[in-house]
Amino acid sequence: MRDKANIVVIGTGGTIAGRGETSANTSAYACSVLTIDEILAAMPDVSSLANLRTEQLLQTGSENFDNEHLLKIGRRVSHVLKDDEVDGVVLTHGTDTLEETAYFLHLTLKSLKPVVVVGAMRPPSAMSSDAALNLYGAIAVAAHRSSWARGTLVVANDEIHTARDVMKRHSFKLEAFCSPYGPLGYVVEGQPRFYRLPLRDHTVATQWTIDDMTELAKVDIVFGYGALDGAAMAASSSNTQALIYAGTGNGNVSQGIVARLVEAARNGVHVVRASRTGNGVVVRNGAQPDDDYGWLVVDDQPPQKARILLMLAMLSAQDDRGALQAAFYRY
Ligand code: GLU
């Protein structure tokens, strides 16, 4: 055991790498302009937590991240973790899709070492920026022995979340991140304190390994609203291999699109009922006869997480709907 952990901090852009013209500039600023070295240079105390090495993997807003970006990030993190001299990884990331990348890593990395994904709601230049404290907390968590074997973690606002559950639920406030079952713990004075553990399978217990992946399926999300009709749905989903339908309430499907989704499932497109509420479960054969229609349900996954999970499940069970449904109940 080393005196101080060796942590690799990988930068990908986002608000944590942003810069405003004035300190009052908390929402309209230039995103993804500071390098990871520039961000850390303004945080001298961080060297007491760990020996740091940095890498600039990407420099862009996470709203631009596609499947290629996910694969690139996953492969790089996996490669770094294989180095015996590395004890953990911190990935800085835009907050918009941070939960998706973190969940992807949570399901595909094959390592017990801590991986912490972190962003900020205000750039380092802003008044009351959360950038430095979030990054400090993320490094503290990655460097601590108690963070091993927890899957991918997200640190925000003094809280430690599991990548499976965490969601960005506010567009500008500092307390933007939350998990439906609460955080796993807190970061207190540079030390993680865990109170709960994720029960669903992750990292070494999943059937997917990032190193083997070359491509992910095209899975789209359609956002439901009252009386959404077939034409509107067709406009937002074409050439897709699977469709997550973010239905109202308990994954309800408006009458105007039931027949279209039944036909899509018959034609081999996987149709998955989710809920646009962001909380709770979608009950199989509840609001709709999923068995009859050949549809799937997400269990408790929000649409954006369900998309990640389904892309992975389709790697191992392309057309086996029973196996795809089982993945939603296992992970
Ligand atoms: N464009 C940003 C992103 O990369 C905005 C959000 C942020 O990082 O806080 O997601």
Written overview of the protein:
The chain has 2 domains: 5-205, L-asparaginase, N-terminal domain (Rossmann fold, 3-Layer(aba) Sandwich), CATH 3.40.50.1170; 217-330, Rossmann fold. It is 27% helix and 19% strand. It has helices at residues 36-41, 67-81, 98-108, 131-142, 230-236, 255-266, 290-293, 303-316, 321-330; strands at 5-11, 50-56, 88-92, 115-118, 152-156, 159-162, 167-168, 177-178, 185-188, 191-194, 219-223, 242-247, 270-275, 296-297. Strand 3 (88-92), helix 3 and strand 4 (115-118) form a beta-alpha-beta unit. The longest helix is centred in the first third of the chain and has 15 residues, at 67-81. Bound molecules: glutamic acid. Glutamic acid binds at residues 14-15, 31, 61-63, 94-96, 119, 121.
How are the elements arranged and paired?
Layout: E1 5-11, H1 36-41, E2 50-56, H2 67-81, E3 88-92, H3 98-108, E4 115-118, H4 131-142, E5 152-156, E6 159-162, E7 167-168, E8 177-178, E9 185-188, E10 191-194, E11 219-223, H5 230-236, E12 242-247, H6 255-266, E13 270-275, H7 290-293, E14 296-297, H8 303-316, H9 321-330
Parallel strand pairs: 1-2, 1-3, 3-4, 4-5, 11-12, 12-13, 13-14
Antiparallel strand pairs: 5-6, 6-9, 7-8, 9-10
The chain binds glutamic acid.
